[in-house]
Amino acid sequence: MLLEFPWLSLIIWLPIIGGIAVIASGEQNLELTKRIALAYAILTFVVSLVLWFGFDATTAEMQFVERSAWLPALGVEYHLGIDGISMPLILLTTFIGIFVIIAGWDVINYRPSHYMAAFLIMEGIMVGVFSALDAILFYFFWEAMLIPMFIIIGVWGGPNRVYATIKFFLYTFFGSVFMLVALIYLYFQTGSFDILGFHAAPLGLSAQILIFIAFLLAFAVKVPMFPVHTWLPDAHVEAPTGGSVILAAIMLKIGGYGFLRFSLPITPDASAALDWLIIAMSLIAVIYIGLVALVQKDMKKLIAYSSIAHMGFVTLGFFIIFAIFQRAETAGAVMGIEGGMVQMISHGFISGALFLCVGVLYDRMHTREISAYGGVINRMPWFGAFVVFFAMANAGLPGTSGFVGELMVILAAFQADFWFAFLAATTLVLAAAFTLWLVKRVIFGEVGNEQVAKLEDLNRRETLNLGVLAAATLAIGLWPKPLIDVMEPTIEQLVQQVQVSKLPSAIAVDDAPVAGLQP
Amino acid sequence: METVYLTIVLAPLIGAIIAGFFGGKIGRVGAHSVTILGVGIATLLSLWVLSRFIWHDEQAFNGTVYTWMVADGIRFEIGFLVDRLTALMMAVVTFVSLMVHIYTIGYMADDAHNWPEDSRVGTNSYQRFFSYISLFTFSMLMLVMSNNFLQLFFGWEAVGLVSYLLIGFYTVRESAISANLKAFLVNRVGDFGFILGIAAVVMYFGSLDYAEVFAQAPALADTQVAVLGGVSLMTLICILLFIGAMGKSAQMPLHVWLPDSMEGPTPISALIHAATMVTAGVFMVARMSPLYELSTTALSFVLVIGAVTAFFMGLVGLVQNDIKRVVAYSTLSQLGYMIAALGASAYAAGIFHLMTHAFFKALLFLAAGSVIIAMHHDQDIRNMGGLKRYMPITWITALLGSLALIAFPGFSGFFSKDAIIEAVGHSHIGGAGLAHLLLTLGAFVTALYSFRLYFLVFHGEPRMDHHTRSHLHETPWVVTIPLIALAIPSVFIGWYAIEPLLVQNWLGDAITVKPEQDTLHHLAAHWHGQREFIRHGMQAAPFWLSMAGLVLAAYYWSYVLQRNPKIDVELQQRGGWLTHLLEDKYGFDDFNQRVFAGGSQRIGRFLWKSSDQRMIDGAVVNGSARAVGWLAGVVRHLQTGMLYHYAFAMILGLVVLLTLFVTL
User: Fold this and answer.
1) Which InterPro entries has this protein been placed in (chain B) (predicted)?
2) Residue B363: partners with Cβ closer than 8 Å, 6 or more residues away
C-alpha cells in the first residue's frame, strides 16, 4: 500500500513547489528564505530514501510506476518508474541537491531567493529526467533542465558568462534536436511514446544507425565526450560554485543515463556496429583530456577536464561490452556497465566535492588561478586535508569510491582487449599526475603571498558539506556491495537485451537503407 | 583466531584515527601513547601468532572478513590468509614499527622547529606523524595478511598513500613536496602494470582469491595470449605484476623515487623506505610463487632486474655525501639482492634477506637519525667525523648494522646474502650467469660504501663547526633503546633462522618451487650446521671481495684521511667520467624530467591550444556560433530575447529535419 503512493511524483514536484515557495517568500527575510530552501532540499532527500528502502533488488522490472494519460490525442503519457539504473542516480540528485543549497548560503548576495529556487526547480526536473518512461515526458524534462542551468550561469556566473551560456546552449540544443527527431520517428514505428515500447521495437540496421547517431549527438554533448566537450570547461569556469557542482555531479550523468536507457536497448545492433567509435572517443577522453588537464592554469578548468576524462571511463564501460560480445564472450559485460554506473555515482561525490573546494578558495580569494595560490595548508589545515582526500579519490585510490568504477571498467576492458585496458589504465598515472600536481601547487609549499597568508580555515557549514561528501566517498569505496546489488538485476537484464539482435532477418539488412526509414 | 587477526589489524588503525582526528585534544603524550598502545598490541599478538606457528604447528588461516562486492559473478572480498610466510612478515612489520614508534618520541621531540612560526599545519605535527605511522602499520598489515588480489592492491596503494603523506610531511619544503609527488607517480607507473596483471588474473582465473588462483594455475600453464604477438599467459601475468613490484620495491628503472624519499623524517625512512613497504614487492612475488614458477621467462626478467639494481645502485652509493642517501642507495642495492633471489626461485632466501635486512637497515637508518639529531639536522657526512667518542651506543650499534650489511661472517646479513649469491650461482635460467657475477661484485661495492660512511661519520677528526661540536652528545634513551633492540636481531637472527628457513623448509606450503628450478636444495643437501656454512662462505669470492672493500675503505677513509683530509674529494675527482656518471645517477632523473614530465606537458599544451581551442572551438563551435548569430540577426526584428531565439531555432530545425527524414 505504501508503494502505491506516487512517490516519484512527490520527489519531482516537491522541490519544484519548494522553489516557487522560495521565490514567493521574497528577499525580505533572507534567513527564512534560505531555511525554507534547505528544508525542501532535505525533505526531498528524505522522501527519496523511500526509493532505496522500498526498492525490490531482485527484479529488473520498473518499480514505483505511475502511469496516466497526459495528451491522449498524441499518445503521450505521464509515465514514471525506476529500475536499478535510475534509482541510484535519483538518490544522487536529491543528495547533492542539499549541498548546493548550503554552498550558496552566505556567498550569493544577488537575489538569493531566485538562486535557491533555480536549484530546487532544477533538482525536481533532473529527477524527472531519470524517472520518465514516456519519451515526450523525458524530452520535456530534458529540455526544461536547460532553463534553470542557463539562468544560473547567466545571472550568477562569472565575467565571461555570456560566451559560456551561448556555447553551452548551442551545444546542448544542437544535440537534443536530433534526439527529438529520433523519438518522433520511434513514435511512428511503435505507435506510442512509451520508452519500454521503444526497447521492443524491431528496427533495421540503417534505421538503428541513424537513431543511434541522433542519440549519440544528444548524449555525447551532455557527457561530454571528445570532441564535443569544449563547452564544459567554459561553463564550469563561469558557473557559480553550486552550478558547477550540479553540472558535474548530475547533469553529466544524464548523458550516461541516456546511453543506458535509450541507445543500448533501442539500437543494440547499431551500438554493436559503432562500438569502436565510442570506445575510441572514450579512450581519447582518458588520455588526451588527461594530458590537457595537466597543463591547465585555472583550477576549475582543470577539474572540468578531469571530469571529462573520468566520464570517458563511463562510456568505455558501457560500450566495451560489444567488444566482449565480439569475442563470443559475456564475462565482463555486466561488470563494464556496472563499473560505468559506479563511476557516475562516485564522480558525483568527488567532482562535486572538488568544485566545492574550489568554491571555498574562490569565496575567500576571488581567483581560480593556480598560480595565485601556494601553501594554503599553512593557513587552512583542515581544508588541506579534505583537498588531499578528494584528490586521492579523484586519482582512484582504493578505499575511495573513485577506485571502484575504474577497477571494474579496467577489468571489463581487459576481457575485451588487452590494449583497451592498457590505454584505460593510463589514468592511474595521468589522473594522479594532474590532480596531485594541482594539490602540490595550491595546497602545499610555503605561503604563496599576502592574500594566502590571511586565509581562514573552513567554517562549520563548509566542514559539514565536505565531511558528508567525504563520508559518502569512503562508504562506497569501502563497501560498494549494496550499490552493486541494487543495480545487478537491471544491468543483467540489459546485457541480455542488447545481445539479442533486433534485425528482422539478414535480408532486411540489405535493403534497409531506404526501407527501414519509411514510417 | 579471526578475532586475534582482526585485533592485530585494527589496533593500529584505531590508534591512527584517535591520534589523527583528536591529536589537538589528547596532546603529544596522548597521541604517542595511544598509537604505541595500538602497535604494541599488534606486535605482541603477532609475535604470539608467530610463536604458535613455530612451536605449536598452527595451521594456516584463510577466511573472509566481509564481501566487498559481488559483480558479474566474481566475488571481491576482504579477508585474511595467515600462514607461515604471513606470520613472519607480520612479526617483522609490527616489531620494526613498534621500535620506530618509540624512537619517534625522541626524533620528533622538537619538530616545531621544522615549521614556519605562523604555519597552522605545524601545530600538532607530532601527533599527525604518529597517526601516519600507525596508519602505515595498518596498511602494511592489510597488504601482507590479504588472501586475495583486491585487498593486496588495496594495501599496496594504501602504503603508497601513507608514503606520499610522510615523504611530503614537511609540506613547506619544496624538495619534500616534489619528492612525494615523484614517489607517488613513479609508484603509479608500477601500479599500472599491477592492475593489468590483476585484470589478467580475473579474466583467466575468474577469481581474485589466492587459493583458487593458485589451484588453477598449473592447468593454465600452457595457455597462450594473443598480446604482443603471443606470449604465455603466466609470463604476461607475472611480468605485469612484477612491474608493480618494481615500483614499490624500487627496482630499475622505477627506482628513482626512493633516494628522493629521504626528504621524509628519518623514522619513516627506516620503517617505510627500508624495512617494510619497499619489501612489499619481494613479499608479493614470494606469495605469487605458484605463478612465477610457471614462467621461466618472467623469472629471468626478475633475476636480471634485481641483479642489475643490486650492483649499479650500490655504485651510486659511493658518491653520495648525504648520510641518508648513502643508506638509501644501499637499500636499493639490497632490495636488488632480494629480487634476484626470487628470480632464482630461492623465494625463501629472498624472504630471509628481507627479514635480516629489515632489522639491520632499520637499525642503520635509526642510527643515521640519531647522528642527525646530534648534528642538529646536518646530514652531510663531510661535516661529521669522530662521533664515536660522543655517541658510543649509536657508534656500536651502527658498526654492528654495517657489519651485518656487508655480510661479515656470523652476522645476520652474512647468512642471508651468501645464501642468495649461492642460490643464484646454482640457477640455470637465462641471465643467471650475469646475475651471479653482478651480485658477487656487489659484495665489494657494499663493503666499500658502507665503511666509507662508517669511517667518515664515526672515525677521524671531527669536522663539524665548533658550535655543533660543543653540543654533541648521545641521544636520549627513547632513541638508543630501539637501536639496541634492533641490533640484537641484526647480529643473531641469521644464525638462528637460516636452518629452519632455508634448510628445513619452514615456510612449507606458503611457497611453491618446482623441483627442477629449486636452487636452495644444494644448500640443504650440503648442510652441516651454521659453523660449516660460515667456514664454507669464508672460502668463497663474495667474502674476499667484501673484506677487500672493507680494507680499502679503512685505508682511504681512515688511514689516508688522517693525513689528507681532502682525500674524499680527490678520490671523486680521480673517478673522472665515472664519478660524473654516478653523480648523475646514470641520468635517469634528467631523462624522466625531460621526456616524461616535460614531454607530457608539451603534448598536453599542444592538444589544448591547437586541437581544443583552435580546431574544435575556433573553427567548429565558434564558426557555427557566428552562423547562428548571423541567422539571429536576420530574425531579430521578429522578436528579441534568448528564449524566443531558442524556440524559433528549435522549431525551424525540427521542421527541416522531419522533412529530411520523411522524404528520404
Assistant:
1) NADHpl_OxRdtase_5_subgr, ND/Mrp_TM, NU5C-like, Proton_antipo_N
2) B397, B398, B400, B401, B404, B483, B486, B487, B490
